[in-house]
Amino acid sequence: MIELKNVSKSFDSNQVLKNISAIFKPGITNMIIGGSGSGKTTLLKCMIGLHEIDAGEINYDGVDFSKLDFKEKIPTRKEIGMLFQSAALFDSMNVEDNILFPLNMFSDFTMEEKLDRANFCLKRVNLENVNQLKIADLSGGMKKRVGIARAIAMQPKYLFCDEPNSGLDPKTSIIIDNLIKEITLEYQITTVINSHDMNSVMEIGDHIIFLHQGQNWWEGSNTELIKSDNQEVNEFVFASKLMKSKYQ
Amino acid sequence: MFFYHFGKYLLFLKNVFTKPENLKVYWKEIVREMNLIGVGSFGIIAVISIFLGAVTCIQTAYQLVSNLIPRDIIGVITRDSVIIEFSPTICLLVLAGRVGGSIASELGTMRVTEQIDALEIMGVNSTGYLVLPKIIASVITIPMLVVISMFLGIVSAYLIGPLTGVISGAEFISGVLRDWNPYIVIVALIKTYIFSFLLSSVSAYQGFYTKGGALDVGVSSTKAVVYSSVLILFADYLVAQVLL
């Protein structure tokens, strides 16, 4: 479980996050949504330690991650899997080496065990016989799937996804969404997804936080989201004609 | 601004030289970088060295027209110029463009495509993993290239002298062997080690702290080449002042 308590973050005089408190439980897909500039990416980067917060606490199972130094953060970081918007795969390596990387770095497995684990992860994301392909040869959807495979290679307790279906076609988006949902349920991971894709939210969002002007403006499930009478939430959710015709 | 970057550079180096998480993975990276930096630069260094040696021989002969000066002096001057200055400095300036630019653009691209963030989230010391192998590979392979460059420069001068008629082969060999002092090779190697370290670390620093997008990767690469070239020339002066 991840618990945020009064998290605030500023860049110079611009306060991006204002006293954000939230709880992200394991086994469900937690989503952070909001318009551009609402602070979604900053919040995610604060949670994974890429940005230092100015005030508040970020607790991973009771341990305040934000107060730890680089070395103290390492054990928690080994329990974190991250899927980046661009997948952030190492393009100097092939698919297999990308997945083997965290295993080579931190595990004591034999090479055979590592390869088994890499193949298992690839199979789990429905990719087979792609081990030797270069990253440049993969499609957008394949890159995301390899990104997920790398993220789950070390059997993480926490999975973060930054805009997992940006740049993907609707069909591939649904595949990626469902894959994240399945993995979350299967391994009881605490998953936090940062997204502004309403299809994704309606498809897999169990617990949703709506950020507006750097604040936790609204919180609830996806069914509660479409029934909300909050004006800012409605403006965001029903911005597209498709959402209006489907749910309003 | 200078002190800000100098302090940040020192902190960067402190992180680079912390204990590696996994020596085996680092070793693999060092070998890969040695291949990229050393083997990959051999061609350009060979071409430059051959022409540098040949030109030094011909130009020295052109300037020494007096009959009072023995002709084997051409061999002495060519040898000393190639060993002390041309091979370590000119080759490193060329490598600042080839290797420095490549290091900065590789790290800059990794930064803007979030690959460095991915390493950090995994708990990897990204500065150590990405930069230490580049510095070690540079400090090992560039001096080797410079020694090869010295050899090729002198050999090309030996071949071009008789070919153009400015000096005979025997006179050139006599000059090369005259008053031979191995200390100049030591000075040249000290220079090379210092320059290699500056080139790789300054370029890595520029690339590692790239902010923005593709355009900024280009800016970082340019800065890497310019700053490492200027620092190489400055260090060249300092070493010459102190050691010669």
Low-confidence stretches of chain B: none
Distance between the termini of chain B: 33 Å
Spans of chain A of at least 5 consecutive residues whose pLDDT stays below 50 are none
Name of the level-1 CATH class of the largest domain in chain A: Alpha Beta
Specify the oligomeric state.
heterodimer
Structural class of chain B: mainly alpha
Instruction: Give Rg of chain B in angstroms.
Output: 21 Å
Query: How many domain modules of chain A?
Result: 2
What is the tally of beta strands of chain B? 0
**What is the chain-wise order of helices and strands of chain A?**
EEEHEEHEHHHEHEHEEHHH
- What best-fitting shape of chain B do the alpha-carbon axes yield? elongated
> N-to-C terminal Cα separation of chain A, in Å?
33 Å
The CATH superfamily of the largest domain in chain A is identified as: P-loop containing nucleotide triphosphate hydrolases
Helix proportion range of chain A: 40-55%
Strand content of chain A: 15-25%
Strand order of the largest sheet of chain A: 6-7-8-3-9-10
Shape of chain A: globular
CATH topology of the largest domain in chain A: Rossmann fold
Number of helices of chain A: 10
What does the average pLDDT of chain A come to?
A: 90
Explain what you see.
The complex is a heterodimer of chains A (248) and B (244). With 248 residues, chain A is α/β, with parallel strands linked by helices. Chain A folds into 2 domains: 2-79 and 157-247, Rossmann fold, CATH 3.40.50; 91-155, no CATH class. Chain A is 40% helix and 25% strand. In chain A, strand 9 and strand 10 (215-220) form a beta hairpin. The longest helix of chain A has 18 residues, at 170-187. The mean pLDDT of chain A is 90. Chain B has one domain (21-243). Chain B is elongated. The two termini of chain B are 33 Å apart. In chain B, 45% of the residues are buried. The A-B interface holds A 48-50, 70, 73-75, 77-78, 80, 82, 84-86, 88-91, 101-102, 104-106, 154 and B 21-22, 24-25, 110, 113-115, 117-118, 120-125.
